[in-house]
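Limitations

Structures in this collection are predictions, not experimental determinations, and the ligand pose is part of the prediction. Treat each record accordingly. The example that follows, with acetoacetyl-coenzyme A as the small molecule, is included so readers can see exactly what is and is not provided: the inputs are given verbatim, and the output is the predicted complex.
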Amino acid sequence: MTYQTINTQSATKGVLTITLNRPEAFNALNTLLLSEVADVLEQADKDSDIGAVVITGGPKVFAAGADIKEMAALDAVGVMNDDRPKHWRRIYQFSKPLIGAVNGYALGGGCELVMHCDIVIAGDSALFGQPEINLGIIPGAGGTQRLIRTVGKPLAMKMVLSGEMIDAQTALQANLVAEVVIPERTIERAHELAAKIASKPPIAVRLAKEALLKAFETDLESGLNLERKAFTLLAATEDRNEGIAAFMEKRKPEFKGR
Ligand code: CAA
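Predicted complex:
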């Protein structure tokens, strides 16, 4: 399948890589790009050969946000009828791990895409920001809600109200990213992690992601209930028997996704 705004590649076993590819617009996330990313993730969800997806941009720009030129053409009714929230939801609903490899600018919707990733590896030149305030708007793809839950109130308020960017080290300290590496290592490190995760039992990986994400949106008791049910369900999988048997027999497990 060929796409107009992204490239896809599966060079590493079990890992699909999505590269945002609108360099002329600093990888601005127009609606076509969002829909193509969502399409690929939906297909990857159904493909048992794919265990994790890496999403990346270019060496100087991950993504500079929503496409301002496209957005400018929409009035309030246009924004209300926009398909973009639907595509963001499709991206959020991807059930396998999504790993961001970020170099350069991740701004506005680009920073929000970072927050849709489950793990983010940043090059030390990466810059993160929610500059929408400079355009007379606010983040529109979950930025106000996910940023404050991720980095806490002081930094989220500073970023959203002032539009100031933060660097990779600050993003690391604030838990927006999991690791900072030299920019040349960003994609390689994301692939290493993705390949490792893709080698794990896929049902356990999927339920672990679901349970962890639930903590963002629920009270402790409900989250613990979900965790317990997922834990119980896993006791019925062949991979759990295989994992425990392999440990006892001191050999490598062979997971089958059942
Ligand atoms: N949308 C459309 N085009 C964009 C863009 C965007 N978000 N960001 C950059 N571009 C385009 C520029 O228009 C320019 O194209 P032309 O050469 O055709 O004019 C090209 O990319 C390069 O941009 P600059 O010349 O501005 O490059 P720079 O190095 O001087 O600055 C930058 C880089 C700091 C990223 C700057 O481009 C910038 O501030 N971009 C906008 C960032 C922004 O405001 N993002 C939020 C968008 S709104 C949003 O995301 C809403 C939401 O939450 C859903």
